[in-house]
Amino acid sequence: MKYPIDKNYYISRKPELLKKFDEECQLWKPVIVKQYWEELAGGILWEARKEFESLIPQIPYIGGDANRRTETFIESVKYLAFYRAMKKHGKMAEETGRILYDALASRVDKIKQTTPPKGWEDRAKYFKERRKGAEESQERRYPGDYVYKFVPGDGKKFDYGYDYSDAPLSIFFIRRTPMSSCPFTATSTTPHVARGG
Question: What is the pLDDT of residues 69-124, one digit of tens each?
Fold first, then answer.
């Protein structure tokens, strides 16, 4: 079965994507200011917004709203835009990773982590949906989509995880920037894991 590709999916949503990017910048700004200073923070974020806007048409269509990984991809492209802006201001990948980590950690801390994820109350249904997503990924419906397996946990060391065989985000990054930027894409998930997210 062939699945249609909406070539205008991201472009038609550009105003909304930029609005969300601006909201993300408000999370990054205090961390950048603390690390450097106000004027530099403004310059970096202005450059990052330009970078993100230029990357929007390049994001691969992987099912749009029907694919929960679409939001993951968009979020990561924001990080790439930020990295490119930081690089233009002479900053290293390690500095970028630290700022993103601290900003995400701050966001996670504001959320009461005692509150289970949405849908967690019915754990059987929650796991079933994630297994289904993993099974559907094996169909490789869209070029550039994630392909992964669901890994059930033991409820003690971890609840569940994913085993990726295709990680298109890494390819997207490598084609647009040096390898040095790739480590912080994984680092950016660490605050969620470390704080129970």
Answer: 899 899 989 999 999 999 999 998 889 989 998 888 877 666 555 566 666 667 78
Domain boundaries, the chain: 11-194
> Which residue's structure tokens are 């403004």?
42
Residues 6+ apart with CB under 8 A from 158: none
Cβ neighbours of 142 (radius 10 Å): 18
**Both structure tokens of 69:** 């990984």
For residue 141, give the DSSP letter.
Answer: -
Instruction: Note whether 127 and 118 are within 8 A (CB).
Output: no
| Angle, CA 27 vertex, CA 25 and CA 31 arms, to 5° | 100
Classify residue 151 as left (phi > 0), alpha (psi -120 to 50) or beta.
beta
Q: Evaluate whether 142 touches 3 at the Cβ level (below 8 Å).
A: yes
Closest Cα to residue 142, out of 51, 81, 60?
Answer: 60
Sign of torsion over alpha carbons 35, 183, 46, 21: negative
User: What gap in Å lies between CA 63 and CA 51, rounded to an integer?
Assistant: 24
Pick the more confident residue, 162 or 171: 162
- How far apart (Å, rounded) are the C-alpha atoms in residues 159 and 6? 35
Helix (H, G, I), strand (E, B) or coil at 56: helix
